[in-house]
Amino acid sequence: MKQARRTLRRIALIGFGALGQVIAGELQAGHLPGVEFLGALVTGTVPHPGLRSSWSRLEDLLAAGPDLVVEVAGQTALESHAPGCLQAGCDVVAASVGALMDASLRARLWDCARQGESRLLIPSGALGGLDYLRAARRLGPVHVNYRGCKPVAAWRGTAAESMIDLSTISKSTVFFRGGAEEAAARFPQNANVVAALALAVGDPSAVTVELVADPGARTNRHELTAQGVAGTIRLSVENSPLPTNPKSSRVTAFSILDAVASHWGEP
Ligand SMILES: NC(=O)c1ccc[n+]([C@@H]2O[C@H](COP(=O)([O-])OP(=O)(O)OC[C@H]3O[C@@H](n4cnc5c(N)ncnc54)[C@H](O)[C@@H]3O)[C@@H](O)[C@H]2O)c1
């Protein structure tokens, strides 16, 4: 017999930056019916306006009793906090997918999820088409060429600054060519898409990456061509950046909300 569904599900965030604030705003506005926003795990002591409850220790977040935790804080935070959430039986949606390029962390998280009978969910984030890649890989190896092109401002504060002079480039410039693992390690704030691709095709070495700074770009553009036995997919996505953090795309927040909604059975 089916168990009666609980009417209210509770979500807590790890991180309350650009993505966290959009997600919290949507939840507080009731745009995911039946979901209550509990609060966020934050660093620092300055209270955030618009945040009812905040915690500095994971134990306090878990004590609030979330059903699901959304990580929107960065790779280090995912590595530090996701194991504890999963072990405590709390499902986790991970935004900082780049961290999962580390095979030992992946194995540790799957282990914690098994122990806690919980799930680690990976949203499609700034990109689409991951469902196609996951399906295609069942037919055989899939090779992906990915090109990520963002406005110059989006690369400030990243390793790109030591590879090109961002203040003087006048045209679209490729500053990185390499494999998915290297891209994720060197560009932790920007390589989540690359990691999501590598996980979708099940093999980081099957993904080659080009990263581009474009002074004329107003959007974050992702282009990929993937080929395998199933056929070929060519995808080009242009995302509006979040005004509060141009390194992140607005759609990512909604992809996370969508992952939560589908996880809880919303069509
Ligand atoms: N999957 C995707 O496609 C995708 C797209 C964009 C961003 N992201 C990831 O999402 C993360 C959040 O993005 P954002 O735009 O909100 O970044 P942001 O920098 O605006 O916000 C991150 C917030 O997390 C906080 N934080 C850092 N470590 C923390 C910790 N240990 N505990 C609690 N809070 C902590 C920071 O102080 C900051 O306020 C980024 O790390 C990025 O890697 C993923």
UniProtKB/TrEMBL annotation:
Keywords: NAD, NADP, Oxidoreductase, Pyridine nucleotide biosynthesis. InterPro entries: Asp/hSer_DH_NAD-bd, Asp_DH, Asp_DH_prok, L-Asp_DH, NAD(P)-bd_dom_sf. The keyword NADP applies. The keyword Ribosomal protein does not apply. Residues 170-256 form the Aspartate dehydrogenase domain. One of its GO terms (biological process) is NAD+ biosynthetic process. It catalyses: L-aspartate + NADP(+) + H2O = oxaloacetate + NH4(+) + NADPH + H(+); L-aspartate + NAD(+) + H2O = oxaloacetate + NH4(+) + NADH + H(+). The active site is at residue 222. Residues 15-123 form the Aspartate/homoserine dehydrogenase NAD-binding domain. It comes from the Bacteria. Pathway: Cofactor biosynthesis; NAD(+) biosynthesis; iminoaspartate from L-aspartate (dehydrogenase route): step 1/1. Its EC number is 1.4.1.21. NAD(+) binds at residues 126, 192. One of its GO terms (molecular function) is NAD binding. Specifically catalyzes the NAD or NADP-dependent dehydrogenation of L-aspartate to iminoaspartate. Belongs to the L-aspartate dehydrogenase family. The iminoaspartate product is unstable in aqueous solution and can decompose to oxaloacetate and ammonia. HAMAP family: NadX. This is L-aspartate dehydrogenase.
